[in-house]
Design goal:
mainly beta; four-stranded antiparallel beta sheet
């Protein structure tokens, strides 16, 4: 009975490990703005792109331009990443757009929109974030 009992104990330990409390993988670290729009641009708004990344709206007080960047949480193999920016309302197209198969981010794209609200978005593999009619001025 010795060998049978030992085998059962091993299978029992495996079952406990496999059916014990499930530990979810830690979420990917959120994307952070790293100055990709250039000198003088500061983040004025942001929105999550699901759990895949963040879209950043930045503004430069010196030149009056907005900049949008859609950035993945974890760079990796090339996937479709897009960024769009328009004077609100965007309608059926974006005034400024960048999209393609990128490892890290789409953009930066720039638009002067003094006295107007802007629509801005970021999309990663079909998941979208962004806002419409914000940051007016």
């Amino acid at each position: 009975m010795g060998p049978l009992r030992k085998t059962a104990a091993v299978f029992g330990a495996t079952a406990v490990l496999m059916t014990g409390t499930a530990v979810a993988a830690p979420p990917a670290a959120a994307a952070t703005y790293g100055g990709e729009c250039g000198s003088g641009y500061n983040v004025v708004n942001r929105d999550a792109i699901g759990n895949r990344g963040t879209v950043f709206l930045t503004y430069n007080n010196g030149n009056g331009k907005n900049c949008v960047l859609a950035k993945r949480n974890s760079p990796g193999s090339r996937v479709i990443v897009e960024a769009g920016l328009s004077i609100s309302p965007a309608g059926s197209h974006w005034d400024r757009y960048d999209g393609g198969r990128y490892t890290t981010y789409a953009g930066p794209i720039y638009l002067e929109a003094a006295g107007n609200c802007v629509d801005w978005m970021g999309r990663i593999s079909g998941v979208e974030g962004g806002k419409r009619g914000t940051n007016c001025g």
